[in-house]
Specification:
This protein is an alpha/beta fold and about 280 residues long. The chain folds into 2 domains: about 220 residues, TIM Barrel (Alpha-Beta Barrel); about 55 residues. It is built from 12 helices and 10 strands. An 8-stranded parallel beta barrel has the order 1-2-3-4-5-6-7-8, surrounded by 4 helices. A two-stranded antiparallel ribbon has the order 9-10. Strand 4, helix 4 and strand 5 form a beta-alpha-beta unit. It is globular.
Length: about 280
């Protein structure tokens, strides 16, 4: 069974300017943390937040959680200093906001060398260039910035996110085509558990690897939505067993619950089981 990449079901934003939040994040059940130096930090706190984050990451204690630092755009007064600091923070990746095209990643890569890059996908131009961004040799992940995208599109908020579907779909396709992680945007109403669960289910159905979150209260819902359910695991095991039995009898397909099972379905079933193995391994670390 092929090992799954490290799970990214839940990706929690933590303000780089909040010492208590930086400490609390060490004990939260989040698969990844985005340490934010951009939107979550006021302009007059930018420099102090950068220094605080350098110290926090140097102290460590975040375990197996994927550590991602979101810097300010290089066009801002803080972007260059953020990039230079992030280069040596020991994070797993640096997240660049408002990526319009691969040239934006080129500019950051020149500053930080071989540190993996992630791209915030939050502009109309970024949607149109999603494939080229995902294909960048330094790009390891993409994060949807749905609030900024909706603003730039002058789109209205809808529970079904219909105005954003083209952009969301383009980014999922780009990420899957080039083998990079793809994380859905935030759900703003952090007390609306039903709405969050529905949006997580939609994102999972579309093929997203996980969801960005703005509050720890959202973690359980995202982790559950992006984990294989007991019925998923049971069906996967039965599909593999039935297919292997069919192959042993010289047949190319099997039937499970009245549905044809071919090798492509078995590949998906094996990925489902491997994903659960990776989730359990993460929980044990």
């Amino acid at each position: 069974m092929t090992a799954q990449p490290r799970p990214l079901r839940s990706v929690l934003y933590i303000p780089g300017s909040k010492p208590r939040a930086l400490v609390k994040a060490k004990s939260l059940a989040t698969d990844a943390i985005i340490f934010d130096l951009e939107d979550a930090v006021a302009p007059d706190e930018k420099a102090a937040a950068r220094e605080l984050l350098v110290k926090a990451l140097d102290e460590g204690g975040y375990g197996a959680r994927v550590k991602i630092v979101r810097i300010n755009a290089l066009s801002t007064p803080w972007g260059l200093a953020d990039a230079q600091a992030a280069r040596d923070m020991g994070a797993d990746a640096v997240l660049l906001p408002k990526v319009d095209g691969p040239a934006d990643l080129d500019a950051l890569a020149e500053l930080i060398g071989d540190v993996p890059l992630w791209a915030m996908m939050e502009t109309p131009l970024g949607m149109l260039n999603a494939s080229q961004i995902a294909a960048h040799p330094c790009c390891h992940g993409m994060v949807m910035g749905t609030n900024d995208l909706a603003k730039d599109m002058n789109a209205r908020h809808r529970a079904d996110r219909l105005p954003l579907m083209t952009g969301l779909g383009l980014c999922v396709l780009a990420a899957k085509a080039h083998g990079v992680a793809i994380i859905d945007g935030v759900y703003n109403a952090f007390k609306d558990e039903e709405g969050l669960a529905a949006e997580c289910a939609q994102g999972r159905d579309m093929g997203f690897d996980g969801k960005t979150l703005i509050h720890p209260a959202q973690l359980d819902i995202a982790n559950t939505a992006y984990s294989p359910s007991p019925s998923d695991l049971e069906l996967a095991a039965r599909q593999i067993e039935a297919y292997e039995a069919a192959v042993a009898q010289g047949q190319a397909v099997a039937v499970v619950d009245g549905r044809i099972v071919e090798n492509l379905h078995v590949a998906t079933a094996r990925e489902t089981l491997a994903k659960m193995d990776a989730i359990q391994a993460l929980a044990a670390e």
